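Much of what follows relies on a compact textual record of a protein's fold. An example makes this concrete, so a full record is given next.
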Amino acid sequence: MVKKLKLRAIGNSTGVVLPKEILEKLRVTQGDELMVLETPDGITLTSYDPEFARQMDVAERIMREDRDLLKKLAE
């Protein structure tokens, strides 16, 4: 998809308004955060947060390893 977006003044900064269809593809809404990644092919805008993904991997590992303990705590 190629989409032309216009830069706009927002206070003392410059911003871009993302169309609804792009927000839907990113699965974000107003107030969410986006990550800007510099890649060899240019700039990538994504809702993927590598730090959050790492934290979720740790949480899932703990939940698998300590399932019995977590079950007791939930009682």
Q: What stands out?
A: The longest strand covers residues 35-39. Residues 7-74 form one domain. The longest helix spans residues 50-65.
